[in-house]
């Protein structure tokens, strides 16, 4: 077996927990040792001379959104005060079960907060990138798009055609050339796969 | 709409929990680990029941009533009577029981009781048989939690034992069998009743793990701070049921010491209960609303 | 050798009342006529029927000029501005915490009413809002002062003083709010090495005396590792049991009544203090001592 | 009883035909002696011998994790799903919850089981929940609950133990963070006989007081940290018997661990080869 | 990346695949998933079978009990099929009483057995007006991935084929029953109905759809055949299908029916040995 394919199981002791070894993702420490949390492959990340032990699960990980995560969500309902959406991916990890989230009016943009209009920022069905705010209520994640890199990633026009961004606040339908207002995200590869956007935005050839 | 302040039991924060951890053998109310709080007991409190008792252990208050009916035995156990436990978690006891909140606890309690009373060595159901395969006595033990202040399992088991001790089973005068009809005549004389044999009736002791120490008779706050507890049901020095409550885990050695502690405390409880029940004079007129 | 388990019959119950030759004020019951005259102002706990004023709760009559009200014997805490309270955080919300203070409605502690770590003069940023659970989370106990009372009767608290803030290791005892005697200070450092906060809301906090107040910045610093020595634990347990004994016999709680009770209790062991007759005895002798000291 | 409109109902008078077979006239003692003769049990095992375990993951296609266990004739399917909101719960909780549902299939036991959960099944669900709570890192998913379901297809004794072991495997294969691997084992005691991993009949006979000492003991243990995550006992036993059975059951549980590990490694390898 | 696309825009994802005449699981549009049948592995039941159609798994156990017949049909016994879709099999189902889907499938299954006349209830009669057999056929879905009906019918028929009933001596005069477990007889099955499910996606017909395909399609329907004869077509709403399409589906089902019947026979023989 190759060295990087070291398989471990929950509860397996990985190493001593000392100044040079700390526990990272997928591990925990107890009584001076580092143990694995999940079944997966051991990974050692060296940072500032400290070995961080991590375990990565090869399949779908069971994760829930946490404060600070960038998530991909789909807008479902919009009102004057907020819009409701479903979180579908956390980073590049997809979720089997979608989590309810809410994006308040004042969290849409970082500037000119009093001029924000929810209806001019999103439409139901839009796919957005957003950051998870601290969790104050159980069952309801709060999101924020108040960053340049966050906002609408993929949207379709009224007629169901894909739109492309033309400014920070507008997107244009590639078929009808109708412009619609949106809180547009400046996409950076770190947050979303370029191919994905390309595939979502291309028109389907009807059969 | 006004949202009223909740009265739910306190959930102490981590810092407070730290204080509850007992490194020294002294608990927040000054007791040592094996000490029990004083309690108050009375029997014959429900006049229309065949037997009843009420127990108050600090803030925990339990009322038990026993009802008797004639029933047909289970086809697979023709020689035995029936014993059924029902726990009612009244919302009066704690707001957490509102709606279906107490259901889980009620099921846990009644399951624990019925499994503790299941063995013939503990409680002989054959004594409740009237006629083999046809008729038997069925005892309904109804347990009502009036107030919850910790250590429910112990309190309930003591109250149940006292109620069964107090239970009077009518004597049978005659049995007439006519085909599939059975006619049972019960003695009219209220004094000619038989008492149940409850010497083997189990007492349950909750041994609670706080930090790495074990205590008995936890109060509500101590229960909140504990990661888990072992409930040991003891009958005549033997263990008839062990169950765990809470979410924690035990090292096998800790677990064994819990069992030893449980048995010794159960013996002390048994002694006190026998002594106290012995003090009861017949026809004493005491109501718990006194 | 473990103690014998105390089990008694209800017929042998101990009488816990300690009233000695004192004027007991008239107690009104709901529906009882308080006044037949028309000259009155209807206060709390009363209602008007056929020109008569009647009590709607069981309690004692209080009269201020022509305003007549009945103060219930047993009630939740009704806060007044300036009261010292002890409360438990039950919910973390946006910009505020919900606190259980034994009132009818949950009290609130706004993030703007607390001293955040890093000194008093600090602007509260959006970051702080996001860090709220780091400062105080569900289950934490705080001491605070009532800042204002909202129109619905719920309280707004503040901890903007060094003596208020998060509480550390110690024991919480709950009694009826009416048993707490209002006095100049509700913070007491007893000479026996125990510190007391008598919350006007009936929540009493008992903890070891904290020596260095310098470190205590707004009460967000806690020492989890510190082990309370056995002798202090014993004293704290004794104080707790004494307070409960006094509360059971309805003796007012304030620094001297608690100190007297502590002195009286020393003839018993700690565990004995849980017995009803011992509790009644401690309460009774405390009451006598109090009367003596009053007459002196 | 109210009519169940959501199922097809059978006539109410239906009774199992087993009630009308020739009566077994043997006393319970004789029956027990038949079950274990000269230290050999009906299925040819020694008293301390565990049945062979077959474990497989991934049999429920759309579950997050699943496991199927075969322990002799006992067959149990378990499945685990993604964390979801805790129903009827609005206050914040720092630790996630585990919801367990243990069910016997209607045809799994000699007597037909009903569709609704009965009290035994509820008790088993509660035991499973407690056993698993101690091994799952619940603080990793605050405010959520993870659903664990166990369905017994064929009950030939020790079904609860099999379900706990399988549920542990299902949780691990679902990628739910866990402190440890959990295994469980059952012991049936009657007098001087202690039968490991009892079958249905042995389990049934040990519930009845034939000798003074009798009972059924279930132990769930975590493998690395060697902690008892749940212990359950019924019957009437002496302290000594119980402490001994803890030790012996602990060893049996340890013997199951390699089977579980093998199965989990296999499932990790299969996922790697897929991707 | 592919998986992300699938979750964000499933319809488009499918359309892209279908346009290339291939389904996401690698099948062509007109291919069935493998079928697996296992009979008689649960000996606490009087007859049992497990059917796997792709990733859909259904297990059926039959338990026989004795009861008195209905007054209006004194010479008929009972066959009570109930399909259970427990939360165990898919996140789609929640704990509690049977879901709507479970009720529909149960009723459909009962109708198929009744209308195809594959099982004669008269053979369950022991004593006219007095005593009959009641067969409880409980079907439990263990893994749910579309085409549930296909698996249910196979499991039920497989289990029925393996049912053996003991002889009963009945004395109506004193209502005395004696069951002789030593002598057991198989029940008679007149034929094996087989169900085949199809889905419509855009204008394509997908054979044996998975759960995801069923959800995305505009209509799902199934065809039941017994030995080359059409028993029923069940098409609950959705977009209309052309007669030509339907005929094509029936034709395909015919071929599949024969292979599945063979599978059941093989499984049965395996069980007997």
UniProtKB/TrEMBL annotation, chain A:
It comes from the Eukaryota. The keyword Cytoplasm applies. It is found in: Nucleus, Nucleolus. InterPro entries: Csl4 (IPR039771), EXOSC1_C (IPR019495), Exosome_cplx_N_dom (IPR025721), NA-bd_OB-fold (IPR012340). GO terms for cellular component: cytoplasm; nuclear exosome (RNase complex); nucleolus. One of its GO terms (biological process) is RNA processing. Transmembrane segments: none annotated. GO terms for molecular function: RNA binding. Residues 97-133 form the Exosome complex component CSL4 C-terminal domain. Keywords: Cytoplasm, Exosome. Residues 7-45 form the Exosome complex component N-terminal domain. Gene3D superfamilies: 2.40.50.100, Nucleic acid-binding proteins. This is Exosome complex component CSL4. It comes from Henosepilachna vigintioctopunctata.
TrEMBL record, chain B:
It is found in: Cytoplasm; Nucleus, Nucleolus. The keyword Cytoplasm applies. GO terms for cellular component: cytoplasmic exosome (RNase complex); nuclear exosome (RNase complex); nucleolus. The keyword Cytoplasm applies. Pfam families: RNase_PH, RNase_PH_C. Its main location: cytoplasm. It comes from the Eukaryota. GO terms for biological process: exonucleolytic trimming to generate mature 3'-end of 5.8S rRNA from tricistronic rRNA transcript (SSU-rRNA, 5.8S rRNA, LSU-rRNA); nuclear mRNA surveillance; nuclear polyadenylation-dependent rRNA catabolic process; rRNA catabolic process; TRAMP-dependent tRNA surveillance pathway; U1 snRNA 3'-end processing; U4 snRNA 3'-end processing; U5 snRNA 3'-end processing. Gene3D superfamilies: GHMP Kinase, N-terminal domain. Keywords: Cytoplasm, Exosome. Residues 36-170, 202-263 form the Exoribonuclease phosphorolytic domain. Transmembrane segments: none annotated. GO terms for molecular function: mRNA 3'-UTR AU-rich region binding. InterPro entries: ExoRNase_PH_dom1, ExoRNase_PH_dom2, ExoRNase_PH_dom2_sf, Exosome_comp_Rrp42_subfam, PNPase/RNase_PH_dom_sf, Ribosomal_Su5_D2-typ_SF. PANTHER family: EXOSOME COMPLEX COMPONENT RRP42 (PTHR11097:SF8), EXOSOME COMPLEX EXONUCLEASE RIBOSOMAL RNA PROCESSING PROTEIN (PTHR11097). Belongs to the RNase PH family. This is Ribosomal RNA-processing protein 42.
UniProtKB/TrEMBL annotation, chain D:
Its main location: cytoplasm. Residues 49-177 form the Exoribonuclease phosphorolytic domain. It comes from the Eukaryota. Gene3D superfamilies: GHMP Kinase, N-terminal domain (3.30.230.70). GO terms for biological process: nuclear mRNA surveillance; poly(A)-dependent snoRNA 3'-end processing; rRNA catabolic process; rRNA processing; U4 snRNA 3'-end processing. InterPro entries: ExoRNase_PH_dom1, ExoRNase_PH_dom2_sf, PNPase/RNase_PH_dom_sf, Ribosomal_Su5_D2-typ_SF, RNase_PH. Coiled coil: none annotated. One of its GO terms (molecular function) is RNA binding. CDD domains: RNase_PH_MTR3. It is found in: Cytoplasm; Nucleus. Keywords: Cytoplasm, Exosome, Nucleus, RNA-binding, rRNA processing. One of its GO terms (cellular component) is cytoplasmic exosome (RNase complex). PANTHER family: EXOSOME COMPLEX COMPONENT, EXOSOME COMPLEX COMPONENT MTR3. Belongs to the RNase PH family. This is Exoribonuclease phosphorolytic domain-containing protein. It comes from Henosepilachna vigintioctopunctata.
Automatic annotation (TrEMBL), chain E:
Gene3D superfamilies: GHMP Kinase, N-terminal domain. The keyword Protease does not apply. The keyword Nucleus applies. Its main location: cytoplasm. Keywords: Cytoplasm, Exosome, Nucleus, RNA-binding, rRNA processing. Residues 32-166, 191-255 form the Exoribonuclease phosphorolytic domain. Belongs to the RNase PH family. Transmembrane segments: none annotated. InterPro entries: ExoRNase_PH_dom1, ExoRNase_PH_dom2, ExoRNase_PH_dom2_sf, Exosome_comp_Rrp42_subfam, PNPase/RNase_PH_dom_sf, Ribosomal_Su5_D2-typ_SF, Rrp43. GO terms for cellular component: cytoplasmic exosome (RNase complex); nuclear exosome (RNase complex); nucleolus. This is Ribosomal RNA-processing protein 43. One of its GO terms (biological process) is nuclear mRNA surveillance.
């Amino acid at each position: 077996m190759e060295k990087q394919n070291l398989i471990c199981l929950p509860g397996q002791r990985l190493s001593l927990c000392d100044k040079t070894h700390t526990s990272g993702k997928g591990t925990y420490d107890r009584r001076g040792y580092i143990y694995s949390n999940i079944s997966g492959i051991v990974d050692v990340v060296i940072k500032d001379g400290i070995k961080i032990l991590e375990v990565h699960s090869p399949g779908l990980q069971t994760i829930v959104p946490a404060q600070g995560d960038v998530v991909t969500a789909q807008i479902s309902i919009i009102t004057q005060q907020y819009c409701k959406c479903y979180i579908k991916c956390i980073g590049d990890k997809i979720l089997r079960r979608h989590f309810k989230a809410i994006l308040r009016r004042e969290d849409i943009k970082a500037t000119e907060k009093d001029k924000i209009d929810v209806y001019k920022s999103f439409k139901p069905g839009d796919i957005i990138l957003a950051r998870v705010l601290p969790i104050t209520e159980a069952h309801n994640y709060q999101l924020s798009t108040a960053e340049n890199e966050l906002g609408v990633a993929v949207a379709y026009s009224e007629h169901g055609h894909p739109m492309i961004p033309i400014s920070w606040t507008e997107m244009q339908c590639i078929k009808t050339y109708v412009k619609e207002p949106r809180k547009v995200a400046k996409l950076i590869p770190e947050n979303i796969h370029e191919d994905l956007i390309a595939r979502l935005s291309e028109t389907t050839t009807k059969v | 709409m006004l949202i009223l302040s909740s009265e739910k039991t306190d959930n102490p924060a981590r810092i407070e929990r730290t204080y509850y951890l007992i490194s020294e053998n002294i608990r927040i109310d000054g007791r040592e680990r094996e000490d029990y709080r004083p309690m108050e007991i009375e029997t014959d409190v429900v006049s229309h029941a065949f037997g009843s008792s009420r127990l108050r252990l600090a803030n925990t208050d339990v009322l038990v009533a026993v009802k008797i009916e004639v029933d047909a035995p289970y086809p697979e156990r023709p020689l035995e009577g029936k014993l059924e436990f029902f726990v009612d978690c009244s919302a009066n006891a704690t707001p957490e029981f509102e709606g279906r909140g107490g259901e889980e606890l009620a099921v846990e309690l009644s399951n624990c009781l019925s499994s503790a009373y299941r063995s013939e060595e503990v409680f002989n159901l054959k004594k409740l048989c009237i006629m083999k395969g046809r008729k038997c006595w069925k005892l309904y033990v109804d347990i009502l939690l009036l107030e919850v202040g910790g250590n429910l399992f112990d309190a309930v088991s003591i109250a149940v034992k006292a109620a069964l001790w107090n239970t009077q089973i009518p004597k049978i005068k005659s049995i007439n069998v006519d085909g599939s009809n059975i006619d049972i005549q019960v003695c009219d004389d209220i004094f000619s009743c038989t008492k149940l044999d409850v010497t083997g009736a189990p007492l349950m002791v909750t041994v609670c793990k706080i930090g790495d120490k074990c205590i008995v008779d936890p109060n509500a706050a101590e229960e909140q701070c504990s990661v888990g507890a072992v409930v040991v049901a003891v009958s005549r020095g033997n263990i008839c049921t062990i169950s765990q409550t809470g979410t924690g885990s035990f090292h096998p050695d800790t677990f064994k010491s819990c069992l030893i502690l449980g048995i010794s405390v159960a013996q002390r409880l048994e002694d006190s209960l026998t002594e106290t029940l012995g003090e009861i004079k017949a026809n004493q007129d005491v109501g718990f609303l006194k | 050798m473990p103690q014998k388990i105390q089990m008694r019959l209800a017929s042998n119950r101990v009488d816990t009342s300690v009233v000695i030759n004192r004027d007991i004020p008239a107690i009104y019951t709901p529906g009882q006529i308080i006044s037949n005259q028309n000259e009155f102002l209807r206060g709390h706990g009363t209602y008007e029927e056929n020109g008569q004023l009647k009590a709607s709760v069981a309690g004692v009559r209080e009269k201020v000029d022509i305003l007549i009200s009945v103060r219930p014997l047993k009630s939740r805490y009704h806060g007044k501005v300036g009261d010292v309270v002890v409360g438990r955080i039950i919910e973390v919300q946006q910009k505020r915490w919900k606190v259980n203070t034994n009132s009818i409605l949950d009290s609130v502690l706004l993030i703007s009413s607390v001293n955040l770590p890093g000194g008093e003069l600090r602007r509260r940023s959006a970051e702080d809002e996001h860090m709220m659970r780091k400062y105080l989370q569900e289950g934490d106990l705080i001491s605070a002062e009532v800042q204002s009372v909202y129109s619905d009767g719920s309280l707004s608290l503040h901890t903007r003083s060094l003596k208020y803030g998060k509480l550390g290791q110690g024991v919480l005892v709950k009694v009826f709010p009416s048993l707490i005697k209002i006095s100049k200070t509700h913070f007491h450092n007893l000479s026996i090495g125990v510190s007391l906060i008598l919350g006007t809301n009936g929540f009493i906090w008992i903890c070891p005396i904290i020596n260095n107040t310098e470190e205590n910045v707004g009460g967000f610093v806690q020492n989890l590792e510190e082990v309370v020595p056995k002798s202090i634990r014993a004293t704290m347990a004794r104080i707790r049991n004494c307070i409960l004994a006094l509360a059971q016999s309805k003796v007012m709680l304030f620094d001297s009544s608690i100190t007297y009770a502590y002195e009286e209790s020393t003839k018993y062991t700690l565990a004995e203090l849980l017995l009803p007759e011992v509790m009644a005895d401690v309460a009774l002798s405390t009451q006598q001592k109090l009367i003596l000291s009053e007459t002196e | 009883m109210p009519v169940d409109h959501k199922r097809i109902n059978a006539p109410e008078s239906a009774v199992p035909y087993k009630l009308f077979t020739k009566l077994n006239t043997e006393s319970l003692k004789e029956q027990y002696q038949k079950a274990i003769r000269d230290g050999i049990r009906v299925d040819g095992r020694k008293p301390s011998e565990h049945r062979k375990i077959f474990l497989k993951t991934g049999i429920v296609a759309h579950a997050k994790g699943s496991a199927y266990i075969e322990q002799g004739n006992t067959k149990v399917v378990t499945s685990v799903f993604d964390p979801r909101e805790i129903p009827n719960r609005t206050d914040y909780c720092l630790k996630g919850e585990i919801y367990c549902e243990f069910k016997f299939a209607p045809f799994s036991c000699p007597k037909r089981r009903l569709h609704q959960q009965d009290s035994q099944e509820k008790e088993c669900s509660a035991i499973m929940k407690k056993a698993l709570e101690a091994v799952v890192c619940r603080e990793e998913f605050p405010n959520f609950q993870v659903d664990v379901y166990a369905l017994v297809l064929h009950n030939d004794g020790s079904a609860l133990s099999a379900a706990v072991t399988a549920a542990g495997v299902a949780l691990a294969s679902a990628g739910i963070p866990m402190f440890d691997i959990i295994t469980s084992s059952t012991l049936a005691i009657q007098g001087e006989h202690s039968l490991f991993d009892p079958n249905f009949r042995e389990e049934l006979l040990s519930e009845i007081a034939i000798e003074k000492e009798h009972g059924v003991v279930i132990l769930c243990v975590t493998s690395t940290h060697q902690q008892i995550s749940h212990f359950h006992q019924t019957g009437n036993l002496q302290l000594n018997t119980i402490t001994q059975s803890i030790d012996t059951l602990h060893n049996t549980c340890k013997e199951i661990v390699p089977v579980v590990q093998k199965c989990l490694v296999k499932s990790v390898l299969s996922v790697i080869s897929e991707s | 990346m592919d998986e992300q696309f699938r979750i964000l825009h499933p319809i488009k994802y499918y359309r892209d695949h279908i346009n290339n005449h291939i389904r996401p699981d690698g099948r062509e549009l007109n291919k069935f998933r493998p079928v697996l049948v296992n009979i008689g592995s649960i000996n606490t039941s009087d007859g049992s079978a497990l059917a796997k159609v792709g990733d859909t798994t259904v297990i059926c156990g039959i338990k026989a009990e004795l009861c008195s017949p209905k007054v209006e049909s004194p010479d008929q016994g009972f066959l009570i099929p109930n399909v259970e879709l427990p939360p165990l099999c898919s996140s789609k189902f929640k704990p509690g009483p049977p879901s709507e889907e479970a009720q529909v499938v149960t009723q459909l299954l009962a109708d198929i057995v009744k209308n195809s006349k594959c099982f004669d209830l008269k053979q369950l009669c022991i004593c006219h007006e007095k005593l009959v057999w009641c067969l409880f056929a409980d079907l439990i879905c263990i893994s749910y991935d579309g085409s549930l009906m296909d698996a249910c019918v196979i499991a039920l028929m497989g289990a029925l084929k393996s049912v053996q009933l003991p002889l009963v001596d009945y004395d109506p005069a004193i209502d005395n029953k004696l069951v002789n477990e030593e002598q057991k007889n198989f029940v008679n099955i007149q034929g094996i109905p087989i169900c085949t499910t199809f889905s419509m996606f855009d204008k394509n017909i997908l054979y044996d759809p998975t759960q995801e395909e069923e959800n995305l399609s505009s209509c799902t329907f199934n065809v039941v055949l017994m030995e080359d004869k059409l028993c029923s077509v069940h098409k609950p709403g959705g977009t209309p299908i052309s007669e030509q399409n339907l005929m094509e589906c029936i034709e395909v089902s015919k071929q599949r029916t024969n292979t599945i019947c063979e599978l059941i026979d093989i499984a049965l023989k395996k069980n007997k040995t």
